[in-house]
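Dear colleague,

Following up on yesterday's call, I've attached the two folding results inline so they're easy to grep. Please treat them as preliminary; we haven't cross-checked anything against experimental data yet. The first protein's sequence and structure tokens come first.
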Amino acid sequence: SNFDHHCIWFNNCVGNDNYSYFIVSIVGIWASFVVYVVQLCAGMREVVEAGVGDDQVGMVVGACIVGVVVCVFAGLLMGLIGFHCYLGCVGKTTYDFFMERKLKT
């Protein structure tokens, strides 16, 4: 009931019955990204303090690239969380929001 949107990532429609599960899921995924980046930074700090050998340069560069990618996705996910907080405050569904915008154009 009260259709919100179809989430392609969860391959499921979101509405009144499962909206809270959707929010908990995206907040949980965002939190896991944050924990991952914090642990990655702590690990990289230890490696740098111990001295990076020639055989570890590839690992450090790879870890930095993965960290940047995870940070980008965490930022995008935070935008999604903020958008759904906004929708909750104004009392609209995602479907209503986009249909309203479509009618204005």
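Below is the second protein, in the same order (sequence, then structure):
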Amino acid sequence: MKKTVIVIGGGLGGLFTGAFLSKEGYQVTVLEKNATIGGGLQCFKRNGTSFETGMHILGGFQPGGNLNRICAYLGILDKLQMQFTDAEAMDVITYGEDGRCYKLPSGKEAFTNYLKEQFPAETEGIQQYMDALYSLCQKIDLFNLRSGKGHFFAHDDDDEAFMPADKFIAKYVTNSRLRDLLAYMSPMYGGIAGHTPTYIHAMINVLYINGSSQFIGGSQQLADCLADIIRENGGQVIAGDAVSHIEVHNRFANRVITQSKKEYSADWYISDVHPDTLFSLTGNGAFPKSYVDRVRSIPNSYSAFSVYLKFKSETQPYVNHPCYYQERYETVWQLGDYDEDNFPQGFMYITPPSRNQGPWAERMIVNCLMPFEPVRKWEHTTVGHRGADYQAWKERLMNKVINKLDALHPGFRDSIEMAFASSPLTIRDYYGVKDGSLYGHQWDCENMVRSQMPIVTKVRNLLLTGQNVNLHGICGVPLTAIETAETIVGRGMIVEKISKIK
């Protein structure tokens, strides 16, 4: 008989882990609390217009890239509708302080040469920085889909890998504005000055510099493709019935019970939910108190305030790359701070491509970093019942964002047909993550032992996957899923197969 696996949570990590195990002959059941699977891949509709919730820009899908090879191995690469961002401007960063606009091209050589042109006095440092960035990534077996030590923390005891990312940049570059520019991706990985380790900065930057892309018509398609793999191999993906309890006896999981009182048992259980949520499902005594206290003491990454816009027909041009705005130089590491009077200090905005995309944009998504504290006073409210003061607060902040965009692009406000916003509370409730954390736990190179979350838990047949283990995002979560699946099927078993895909 097939070995059985229950995956709690149908987000990116749960679906990828389930798909890998399904291909290895395991009978997988995925249980998702929301009516729609996918976690950050989910899309929703407002007045007939579809919006992504989280997965806006992709890395690793260029030929030979790790996500390209993973999806080819799973047999879904050709089923995904994607397009690459503009090679000559994969990202554009504008600084309000002086109106300077930097158009960063993709590819290591082009990216490096562009920076040298913009900052000629830093030519030598730029080259050394880029070489060090790529060299560090080459040492990480899992990032390069090589069988070896496996997990992200297994590369050499390289001082640079575990030094704060901001100090790594400063080691090679003296110009403060260039230092800020080189850290422009930090909001994409929950970067905190003095704490975020360089290996995270390196992997995410290299991933996107090598080539970025977007889903055409929304990110939900990836979730659906992964679910199809599980079903085609005899498994099931059940949405809209949250797990309410995990029964654990003598450090061994026996069954899960859902809100509809259905019971499921398996040989293995995999959690794709935030560890704090997991502890609430297992109850007291399932894990040692010291373990629970340690995990709960790990700080969570910041959240976001997002604005969703639908444009009037043929009023805003479609732009095939993300745009970043920052009010002042030397503040990129502080964009997660909050002060309503000066909000927003920076944001990312993007016009996701629709099917049959023409020259005009249909919609835009704007993401502004934000901690949970501004919404703390409404934390005990529920969706649709947060009160008039909450709605007024959201409206004020949304108008501040639109005003900034109108200053950047005169006439922008007049092109808007529909506008609405979400807050850290939305992320908390939608994804089931503590304090609306965008990127899971905060990694801290000052205390790596504390911030690491091993896949193996104190419950012998219960494993972890998802963004709180190793690394978040479109790259980190699937790579973690490989490691989780290989904990069951054997180290190197899946990576060896993927490595044959070129």
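For the second protein, one point worth flagging: The chain has a mean pLDDT of 94.

Best wishes,
A.L.
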